[in-house]
Write a structure and sequence with these properties.
The protein is mainly alpha-helical and 83 residues long. The protein is built from four helices and no strands. It is elongated.
């Protein structure tokens, strides 16, 4: 299995050792699991964003329950009408 050298302050390394020991893991295994979890979270986020933007739903507002249409942006921001 490949190895990796980590450079960090003694405080960080000490906390890493304590956290790994509390989970009954070696430091190496614990760091490997942290990195794997980070990658999985990033992959899940990227997949969710791709799913969202692949839909047309975000381009148009949802339909209202009473059937009325939503006001246009121009209507909402018409300053003359507010005077």
């Amino acid at each position: 299995m490949p190895s990796l050298t980590i450079n960090a302050s003694e405080d960080v390394l000490q906390r890493l050792r304590v956290e790994a020991a509390s989970r009954r893991l070696s430091v190496s295994r614990y760091v490997g699991e942290l990195v794997k979890e980070k990658f999985m979270n990033n992959d899940a986020y990227e997949q969710a964003m791709a799913d969202f933007f692949s839909r047309d739903a975000y381009l148009s507002p949802p339909e209202r329950e009473d059937g009325r249409s939503w006001p246009a942006r121009e209507e909402l921001h018409d300053r003359k009408a507010l005077r």
